[in-house]
Structures are given as C-alpha cells and as structure tokens.
Amino acid sequence: MEKELKNFFKKLVESPSPSGFEQPAQEVYRNFVKDYADEVKTDVHGNVIALKKGSGKLKFMVSGHADEIGLMVNYIDEDGFIRFSAIGGIDYSLLPGLRVNIYHGKKMYRGVIGRKPIHLLKPEERNRASKVEDLWIDFGAKDKKDAEKKVSVGDPITFSPGMEMLSREIVTTKATDNKAGVFVAGALLRELKDEKIAVNVYAVASVQEEIGLRGAKTSAFGIDPDVGIAIDVTHATDYPGMNKGLLGDIKLGKGCVLSVGPNINPKVFELLKEAGKKAKVDYQIEAAPRGTGTDANVIQVTRAGVAAGLISIPNRYMHTPNEIISFKDLESAVKLLAEFVRMIDDQTDFIPKV
Ligand SMILES: [Zn+2]
Fold first, then answer.
1. Assigned domain for 169 exists
2. 266, 201: one domain
3. Does residue 165 fall inside a structural domain?
4. What is the pTM of this model?
5. Which of 173, 193, 284, 306 is most exposed, with minimal Cβ within 10 Å?
6. What pLDDT was estimated at residue 56?
7. Ligand 1 centre from 210 Cα, in Å?
8. Do residues 57 and 204 both lie within one domain?
9. Active site residue 125
10. Do residues 315 and 203 share a domain?
C-alpha cells in the first residue's frame, strides 16, 4: 500500500473514537479528505461529510463508521481504582490484564485492567467468563482524591494496541472495525482526484454505529441520497472454529465482500459486481437474508427509501483488542467503488424490476 494511504490508516486506527467521542478520528478524516473534496462539513451529530461534486443531480452516499467500541469511567472507588462500563459490544472475558488508554480532555493516561489472580479464584469462578463487576482499571492513582485530579466519571477509554504489520499485507490493530470503512470512504475520494464524474459523491465518516447505527441515520436524512453504500467489516471465516455452513466462506485477502439480500438494492448489487470485473479486482459474496447490522440498514429506510449497498472488509477477531484485516481487501474495495462511481449517472435506474 502507498505510504500516504498507510499513514492515513495508521492515524485513523490509533486515534481514539469510542461511540460519542469520535472527534479525534474525525479530525484525521477531515485533514485527509480536504485535498480531495469540494466541501467538507461536520454536522451537529459529529458526522463528517466530504462532498465531491458531479456534473449531474444524482447523489451517492458512501459511509464508514468512525466509532470504535470502548469503555467509560463509571465510578472511582476510595482506593483510586476505576470501575467502568462498556461502549458497544465488549467481550469481558478478553479484558483481564490488558493495557488501556484513558482520555481526559486532551490528556491520556495509561491503565491496566485488573482481576483477581487465578490462584485466588474459587473453582466456580475459574469456570466462568469474567463479568464487568469482577474487573477494574488500575492507573497508578494513590486514592480517590488523586485519581479525581486526573480523570472524571464519563471519560472514554480505548484498547491500546496500535498498528502492526504481521506480513506485507496483513495488519493487526484495535478498531479495524470500522476505521477500515472510513479509510475506504476517504481513499475513494483520493482515487477519484481530478476526475470529472456525473454523480455527487458524499463520503461520510459516520458516528455511533456501535450503539445503534445512529450517525448513518442522521447523515442519510440530511444528505437525502439516491443511492447509499455502507462500508464495514464482516467476519472472515478462515480461522479455527468458524462454521462456513452458517457463516459462508469469507477469506482474508480474497477481496472485499459484496452483500446480497433484502437490505441491498438488486441494481446496486449487479452494478457492484460489474464494477469489480471492470476494475479487475477480487471480490467475494455474502448472503444477507435480513436487514444487516450495519449502516446499510438505516440508509436503506431513510425517508422514502434509498438504493442501498454494503461492501465489507473481511475481519478476524472482531471486537477484540487485536483485529486482523488485509490491505489487499481495502484496495479492492477502493478500486471497485471508484469504478461504480464512474458507471452511474442521472440515467441510472435503481427501481427493482423483473
Ligand atoms: Zn463493530
């Protein structure tokens, strides 16, 4: 991957952005897209919308959610330990022993998630997964008073692992879900740089997906697009314990994933496949027999309905502190989407027909 893009990805994943606290990541997005967009706006909800104008009227929204899962300071006890609650879908059994970052305004503190050591656990405690009540954050405070000089109830907390390459293309970090999607939205505008296009492209870094698809809902209402594609991650099924019969066959490095099903406009799906062929990139197909758990769900049912699509990046170990994706799949998504943009104009009919 080119250096500028790799840097953009690294800055995105390493900037803290639990749902409701996305602005550090949004700042990275704004700085990247400003050279490739005609307009960049941030709405009152915190969504960042970068517009590349086209010659026609058609409006295309492409959206990746900028928020990541995280924790929040809930209570500070007399001894200066932080009790926390989850922002988004957290698996508590993964937490004991992790280092975390606690953000207080512009300040960041490091902490460790504590749990009673295995030697001291009762047999019944050993056999069950940790619950949030069993855990705390130790950030070296002397006592409550000392802790409260540094952090406050409501401060956001993130996992700490930053970006590391496991091989040339395989990258691990926290929050590929879904900085991958924000990356694709931004990199698409860069890919289209200096090109005259017919469609108006609204490349959105949306907020609060992890707590109920909330930013895509407000941004889609505001933009009022004709066609809207969400970019998110999906479960790769190429590692131990994944049931291909239930989850399909999705491999890391075999290209971005196109969803098909009721959440997807049939014409958008056909055009995306055609775009993949034209762009000569690999892509995979995933069955989605109901509304997806992604921003594509709310985009589709905005106002009188939007022609929706969903492109996903295969992801291993979703919602853990070290997710894994392949840069190849990001590149395939960007190239495929750019081709899609070149193929649509005011004449494109998205109404489903036999
Ligand atoms: Zn997620």
1. no
2. yes
3. no
4. 0.97
5. 193
6. 98
7. 5
8. yes
9. no
10. yes
Claim to verify: residue 199 and residue 145 sit in the same structural domain: no
Task: Answer whether residue 79 is part of any domain.
Answer: yes
Distance 319 CA to ligand 1 centre (A): 6
For residue 324, what are the domain limits? 3-68+174-343
Ligand 1 centroid to residue 36 C-alpha, Å: 27
Same domain, 209 and 77: no
Burial class (CB in 10 A: 0-12, 13-18, 19+), 349: exposed
Per-residue pLDDT of the chain (354 residues; tens, 9 = 90+): 999 999 999 999 999 999 999 999 999 999 999 999 999 999 999 999 999 999 999 999 999 999 999 999 999 999 999 999 999 999 999 999 999 999 999 999 999 999 999 899 998 888 888 899 999 999 999 999 999 999 999 999 999 999 999 999 999 999 999 999 999 999 999 999 999 999 999 999 999 999 999 999 999 999 999 999 999 999 999 999 999 999 999 999 999 999 999 999 999 999 999 999 999 999 999 999 999 999 999 999 999 999 999 999 999 999 999 999 999 999 999 999 999 999 999 999 999 999
Q: How far is the CA of 175 from the centre of ligand 1 (A)?
A: 8
- Centre of ligand 1 to C-alpha 119, Å, is 34
Q: Are residues 64 and 86 in the same domain?
A: no
Cα 182 to averaged position of ligand 1 atoms, centre (Å): 13
- Count up the domains in the chain and report the number: 2
